[in-house]
Amino acid sequence: MGMINFLYLIIGTHLHMLSMATGNSYIDDLRSKPEVIDLPENEQIIDVGEHVSDTAQSPLKPNVTVSSSVRDLLECPVCLNAMYPPIYQCSNGHTLCSGCKPRVHNRCPTCRHELGNIRCLALEKVAASFELPCKYQSFGCMGIYPYYNKLKHESQCIFRPYNCPYAGSECSVIGDVPYLVSHLKDDHKVDMHNGSTFNHRYVKSNPREVENATWMLTVFSCFGQYFCLHFEAFQLGMAPVYIAFLRFMGDENEAKNYGYTLEVGGNGRKMIWQGVPRSIRDSHRKVRDSFDGLIIQRNMALFFSGGDRKELKLRVTGRIWKEQVVPLNK
Ligand SMILES: [Zn+2]
Ligand SMILES: [Zn+2]
Ligand SMILES: [Zn+2]
Ligand SMILES: [Zn+2]
């Protein structure tokens, strides 16, 4: 029906644009990675060449209006997600994503006709010629990506927002670092400190209650960056322990440029941890469960606390520094 005509029109328009843009990155991309379209053998590739001249004379202007229409066509009518090959269609031309296909019991969700196994190669090919901005554009990413590369980019985009680093809550807030810093301050009432050295006291009146809960998060601001110091009690196997570690509010490759030490002691003994802050891309739980921090057995912690072992009083001191940037000579 009308939709089929419309599709041919779009394909024609795109091929026309493609043929004018030789050396274009998405053509190269398709050549170098033919598997992205994944055409099964023996299936005919629709010959759209004859339509090119039709659309060249078409009054329809390519780009903006066509693009948003194609974008709508690429939305699965069932799950509303963007569709990727294989895209299926019923005998009336209604499309459906491969994820939803097994769930509709072989009935087209739009017209209730039998669905069968008809690939919509035309739409798959249109999608391949299509470029979209990264979905984190509002976070600052200016990248434009071929349709089939967009998801992969977005999973690694350095502008993708961070999860709230506050542990022990179900907080679902996401955002960039400045946004999360004010969120931690305003909504979680987290202590903020300026400077790269610190001296903290953690006091708890009943240390026998070791629960899987966050005790404390402190945010440090130094070197123009933000760091989260976590201190908490948890159960390591059967043993109740305390752990302290630092996370960097930024990406992993930048986190590696910093180092930190934590010291805790008393009664003439001292434990020192030296580490590299972990990016907040790694969840708090992941860092804790890899024991990447200063771990203090409860008995030792009580010994450090002095007194009659009724109260936990730990003094943790620490320092954050920026590693010297060594010029690459390899
Ligand atoms: Zn779907
Ligand atoms: Zn249908
Ligand atoms: Zn991006
Ligand atoms: Zn939060």
UniProtKB/TrEMBL annotation:
Q: Which UniProt keywords apply?
A: Ligase, Metal-binding, Signal, Transferase, Ubl conjugation pathway, Zinc, Zinc-finger
Q: Which reaction does it catalyse?
A: S-ubiquitinyl-[E2 ubiquitin-conjugating enzyme]-L-cysteine + [acceptor protein]-L-lysine = [E2 ubiquitin-conjugating enzyme]-L-cysteine + N(6)-ubiquitinyl-[acceptor protein]-L-lysine
Entries under SUPFAM superfamilies matching the protein: RING/U-box (SSF57850), TRAF domain-like (SSF49599)
Q: Name one GO biological process term.
A: ubiquitin-dependent protein catabolic process
Q: Which residues form a coiled coil?
A: none
Q: What does this protein do?
A: E3 ubiquitin-protein ligase that mediates ubiquitination and subsequent proteasomal degradation of target proteins. E3 ubiquitin ligases accept ubiquitin from an E2 ubiquitin-conjugating enzyme in the form of a thioester and then directly transfers the ubiquitin to targeted substrates. It probably triggers the ubiquitin-mediated degradation of different substrates. Mediates the proteasomal-dependent degradation of ATG6, a component of the autophagosome complex. Requires TRAF1A/MUSE14 and TRAF1B/MUSE13 to target ATG6 for ubiquitination and subsequent regulation of autophagosome assembly.
Q: Which family does it belong to?
A: Belongs to the SINA (Seven in absentia) family.
- What name is this protein filed under? RING-type E3 ubiquitin transferase
**Source species:** Olea europaea subsp. europaea
What lineage is this protein's organism placed in? Eukaryota, Viridiplantae, Streptophyta, Embryophyta, Tracheophyta
